[in-house]
Specification:
There is one protein chain. It contains four helices and nine strands. It has helices at 18-27, 29-32, 122-130, 133-154, and strands at 7-14, 39-45, 52-58, 64-75, 79-83, 86-87, 91-92, 97-105, 111-119. The mean pLDDT is 95. The strands form two sheets. Strands 1-9-8-5-4-3-2 form a seven-stranded antiparallel β-sheet. A two-stranded antiparallel ribbon has the order 6-7. It has 155 residues and is of the alpha+beta class. The N and C termini lie far apart (33 Å). The longest helix has 22 residues, at 133-154.
Length: 155
């Protein structure tokens, strides 16, 4: 499903209730945000419109990348929209994408998780795809599900 011409999407049905997936996404992002061997020691979202988005990723060769952005929309347990077109305080910066993450009941006690990257241009979308979007974001979804299952089992 696509809402725009420059979108990449990963969708996954998770055999765990939406509340646990939401809790894993919101509270345990450092455990699932990056595919190995990368790590994300800092993942912070101020989940309100205009709130700060801050992600720091560290690679196996010492790479250190910080992504700042702004939360555009946050509906707890349902939808989060974040962009890197602005740094906190509405400071314009070179945009790469808008990330839309949705969580929905799948009708069988599980969750339909969808993560979409919307880009400003075909070139940006193709660059993201060439960076390994589908494999990387797919691995991230699998890691999120593992964390959500653990949280659900813990109660």
């Amino acid at each position: 499903m696509s809402d725009g011409p420059f979108e990449l999407t990963v969708e996954r049905r998770m055999a765990v209730p939406r509340e646990a997936v939401w809790r894993a996404w919101r509270d345990h992002a450092t455990e699932w945000f990056c595919p190995p061997p990368w790590q994300a020691p800092e993942v912070e979202y101020d989940l309100r419109p205009g709130g700060r988005s801050h992600v720091r990723m560290v690679g196996p060769e010492g790479e250190d990348m910080t992504m700042l952005g702004v939360v555009l929309e946050a509906v707890p347990g349902e939808r989060v929209v974040v962009t890197d077109a602005f740094a906190p305080g509405w400071v314009p910066q070179a945009p790469f994408m808008v990330a839309v993450t949705t969580f929905a009941d799948d009708g069988e006690g599980g969750t339909l998780y969808r993560a979409t990257a919307r880009h400003w241009s075909a070139d940006a979308m193709q660059q993201h795809e060439a960076m390994g979007f589908h494999d990387g974001w797919g691995q991230v979804a699998a890691q999120l599900e593992v964390v959500a299952q653990r949280l659900h089992q813990q109660g």
